[in-house]
Amino acid sequence: MPDKPIQPEGWSCPLPLKDYPNIVMGHGTGAKLSSDLIEHLFIPAFRNPALDAMADSAVLEFPAGRLAFTTDSHVVRPLFFPGGSIGELAVHGTVNDLAMAGARPLYLSAAFILEEGFPIEQLSRIVYLMAESARRAGVKIVTGDTKVVERGHGDGCYITTAGVGVVPAGRTVGSDRARPGDAIIISGSMGDHGMAIMSVREGLEFETQLTSDTAPLNELVETLFQTAPKIRALRDPTRGGVAATLTEFATRSNVGILIEETALPIRAEVKAACELLGLDPLMVANEGKLIAVVPAEDTEVVLASLRKHELGRSAARIGTVVSEHPGMVAARTAIGGKRVVTLPYSEQLPRIC
Amino acid sequence: MPDKPIQPEGWSCPLPLKDYPNIVMGHGTGAKLSSDLIEHLFIPAFRNPALDAMADSAVLEFPAGRLAFTTDSHVVRPLFFPGGSIGELAVHGTVNDLAMAGARPLYLSAAFILEEGFPIEQLSRIVYLMAESARRAGVKIVTGDTKVVERGHGDGCYITTAGVGVVPAGRTVGSDRARPGDAIIISGSMGDHGMAIMSVREGLEFETQLTSDTAPLNELVETLFQTAPKIRALRDPTRGGVAATLTEFATRSNVGILIEETALPIRAEVKAACELLGLDPLMVANEGKLIAVVPAEDTEVVLASLRKHELGRSAARIGTVVSEHPGMVAARTAIGGKRVVTLPYSEQLPRIC
Fold first, then answer.
1. Could you read off the pLDDT of A241-299 as tens digits, one per residue?
2. Closest Cα of chain B to A297: distance in Å?
3. Binary contact (B97, A57; C-beta < 8 A)
4. Chain A nearest C-alpha distance from B143 (Å)
5. Helix or strand run (H / E) with residue B237
């Protein structure tokens, strides 16, 4: 059934919330102020029958198939950055985790931990962006929660989303299924999200602005399964970047992975920013890219189908699964040498999502 | 399939976590330190096949029926209190929200927002208590996430759980289904959780310690549906207490509710603490109680079945749904007068769960 269109001007600072321009402790306590926030801010934005019932649980139809279930907390700093906000990340992160299991995302929950004093106008913008992202991804936000913590015990707004989806029969992907000879494909350029965040934090300026790639990947995954049902593994290389994803594939499949540095799609401004800050683009987070491991014979058909989609235009084969050096990722450099891609013990980019 | 028993001594401060007695930023970044936390702390505690796959989503069998889906963030302060901790609350809160929809809880997610410097030993205790609570409630924690925020941007540990369950055919409950003549039943004493938290915060001492009632209610709900399948509404009176729950029933069902103050089960020490602090026990949070609205003719059978269960021994009928004063809750006082039960605009007890 069709949702009413969101009219941000109508609820961006709706009465009676206008009396409280900033979050106060009472907004998180189950009393009148909490209800105001739910009725005048969350419900109008996310409107759907399950949420409108305002029960502690949403009760929903679930199609035949296995259930995929995932969660992510979002603590990104700053809350708004070039190309997105914590709102888009909170929706796309969970949608993408479901899609990477081969699932069709259906329903999301959203739990907010707000800091006393957080402007309701900013919360409205975030909620509006979440609603728009959910609509774009074809999922419904059906249940939620709000807690408020005292000033100095939060950072404005933390959002935890969980999601459920259905895995259609016949789809089995897993990080333990890569086989020697398989091709490693990425759906587009690397490191855009991480470097967009860094550019804001470090005050870097380039001729072209660095922009986050945050996007919902579920449609792209549907396309993939239509053209290459024998996909072995799928993963969105978020925290830890492409290096972390490939290391996990190598470890769990007990295979080696060899990537070609010259084949890695990296935008010039991202490369420049990485060099400036001494970061390896292989380890920088993405929020709208996927890595697929597919049988070698499917390489061309997969690339062609990815490139037809707006979010896969720069798709590239970046490497191969090998039987040598099991558990290890190696990169062939531009001058023909090989280097081992090691994961950092800690990380250079905290609070990236 | 049977889980291996949890052996807290084996992982309470396991190597290589011993090298880091406190949480550092790297524990939340997807690099080596994150993996250590997952492999050596979360997986051993929550062990089950879905979680062991360590994918971004758990993929699970889902039985025939409607899906119930819910989420709650937990920011209780202090983290440990008489009768429980944030760990039990995080599991029971979500299990109970599912049960109140008539659902059988199946799977939980757990997302942690940890503050830099938080002792890993405390995290271990919390995770152990979550695992024990999940086992007791018969649910599995199948997916999760960990983020770390800088010192001064959190409060040790926030936990957001989401849960899914299945609603068997024929079960329909809703806060809009109360009808004049229905009986209002509570499964036990009121205000225990809220006053336990307050007693710690305010340093109150009584002869008997005030103890939280945190408990999983799903078994009790199963019992209820077996004896009285025509239950109209179920709700656990957490934030805002019994008053908030009854006000919601009255509003959404467009009926009045009349409660008998002399029938309210309140432990003497809770009553004393409420008087001392000037709180109305009707508005104090519970974490292991349910309120059921049932047809009047089912009253005795429901009370009898509740009282047979450990968690329902003090069950009592506390009031009646009436056609007068729709949307309003009234209480008949000990001396025969009537007072209107109004919800506070804000709340006296922040961060209670």
1. 999 999 999 999 999 999 999 999 999 999 999 998 889 999 999 999 999 999 999 99
2. 26
3. yes
4. 6
5. none
CATH of A8-167, one of 3.30.1330.10, 3.40.50.450, 3.40.720.10, 3.40.50.880: 3.30.1330.10
Q: Which helix (H) or strand (E) holds A44?
A: helix A43-46
**What is the value of pTM for the model shown?**
0.94
Looking at the partner chain, which of A32, A150, A155 has a beta carbon nearest the beta carbon of B153?
A: A155
Extents of the domains making up chain A: 8-167, 183-340
User: Is B235 in Cβ contact with A56 (below 8 Å)?
Assistant: yes
Cross-chain CB nearest to A71 (options B54, B109, B149): B109
- B31 and A343 within 8 Å at the Cβ level: the answer is yes
Nearest to B143 by CA among B29, B67, B42, B30: B42
Is the Cβ pair B55, A343 closer than 8 Å?
A: no
**Six-digit token pair at B207?**
């002869």
The per-residue b/e assignment along B56-67, b for 16 or more CB within 10 angstroms, e otherwise, is bbbbbebeebbb
C-beta of residue A95 within 8 angstroms of C-beta of residue A184? no
Report whether pLDDT(B12) > 60. Answer: no
User: Does B62 contact A66 at a Cβ distance shorter than 8 Å?
Assistant: yes
Quick one: B183-340 is in which CATH superfamily? PurM-like C-terminal domain (3.90.650.10)
Question: What confidence tens digit (pLDDT) does each residue in A40-87 have?
Answer: 899 999 988 888 777 889 999 999 889 999 999 999 999 999 999 999
CA distance B33 to chain A (A): 6
